[in-house]
Amino acid sequence: MRNLTIELDPQSTRPPYLKVADALVSAIETGRLKPGARLPGTRALARALGLNRNTVDAGYQEAMAQGWLVAEPSRGTFVAHNLPDIGLAPNAGLKAVAKPATSAKSAEPHLSFTDGAADARLLPAAVMARSFRRALVRKKALSSLGYDDARGTTALRGALMAHLVAERGLTFESHDLMVTRGSQMALFLAAQAIAVSGMAIAVENPGYPLAVAAFRAAGLKVVPIEVDEGGLSIDALEAALARNPAIRAVYVTPHHQYPTTVTMGAARRLRLVELARNTPLTILEDDYDHDYRFEGAPVLPIAARAAGEAVVYIGSLSKLLAPGIRLGYVVAAPDLVARMAMIREAIDRQGDGPLEEAVALMIADGELARHARKARRIYHARRDHLGERLAASLPEALAFEIPRGGLALWTKVIDGTDADRWSDAAARLGLSLTPAARYSIDGLAPAAFRLGYARLDEREIDRAVELMTAARLRN
């Protein structure tokens, strides 16, 4: 920290060096200075405060004597590392937010079976940093620092088009594609673009709750359709269409159904396409984890089999890179993409140009494909490890099938244990479990868990299963 603004108490009668020490301690107590934070040099702080350097040095020495600071030879002065991260104290000029009382036995979950998020620790950070530098020094890419197309940079749209045509069998032009800040934005924009008054959309049940939230925010009525061992039931969808002509769209995750992970077979896919061909039905296909297919022949998206039909194809690069790198995309008819771009401009004029340019370079150089191959190997091993540990530790409690891809297991509770109480018991031990109730659209949920394993390495998986087993015994 080169600069630090502190205020000496003008009402204090203490010597100046103690005023310095008091101000530093106050900054630590209120959370402005965190444990391990580096302090500015005494010369720089003395200049900022208008004091003699020896006075500031004496203040540092006093704070060190009290245990608030430590001096590290050849490095500088730091806030003591062993202090608790106090955060903002109630007397720091802001009202403290009251937290609900918790049991003394409760533990903040520190291991989590996520919903299937990628492991940010695998991010090829050095490769991405090089791509950023290259993007920023190229004259052509400097335009990405100004206002650009709401559909995304030309470079990334072109790179994604080549990738999707070659790898997923899609046929489209670059103006049919829009880059978004994650697939969630694509879902919201698509829902806004297709919505008309009184319209309903059919959704998988159990299904993706944030998709449902996006559809409802767009004013669409949500109609749950049952999911079985083959994914979305086309029979149930046809029956719903006969009962409710307001259904004009259907949302599906056919590659690895969210949350159950099952893959929709070819027969159902063809029936769905035929249904869309003969009815005013738009298919919203969320292909959120297409890159993670570990076994068997590749399965092409519905959009690859439905050229010319009303299909909105949505994908994500966040599952490949890291959850915090918000890059998604949508492929749709050009008039629909144009409407989405207009809606986007009202809230987010454009995407992150430099990021898009950097990722375009990673695609063109083959770096993203290399990272995908590495990630697949790692996640494949983690899937198998989790399956083995669950089968060994909880064979009488959980039933599951190993999916051919995806980043999660869908485990059914078969011994009568209450899934919500099991989840609560796990949280008290430090493990976050997500029961099926979270994914229910109609409030009726099976006794099951979605165990996203991608963010846990083998050692963490071992510990998570141990905690899960212990939690069941305490339930």
Describe this structure in words.
The protein is an alpha/beta fold and 475 residues long. It folds into three domains: 1-95, Winged helix-like DNA-binding domain superfamily/Winged helix DNA-binding domain (Arc Repressor Mutant, subunit A); 111-121 and 370-474, Aspartate Aminotransferase, domain 1; 125-368, Aspartate Aminotransferase, domain 2. Helix content is 41%, strand content 14%. The protein has 15 helices and 15 strands. Strands 4-11-10-9-8-5-6-7 form an eight-stranded mixed β-sheet, with helices on both faces. It has a three-stranded antiparallel β-sheet with strand order 12-13-15, with helices on one face. It has a two-stranded antiparallel ribbon with strand order 1-2. β8, α9 (266-278) and β9 form a beta-alpha-beta unit. α4 (125-137) crosses α12 (353-364), α5 (154-168) packs across α12 (353-364) and α14 packs across α15 (458-474). The longest helix is centred in the last third of the chain and has 27 residues, at 367-393. The chain is globular. The protein starts with 15 loop residues before the first helix and ends with a helix. The relative contact order is 0.12.
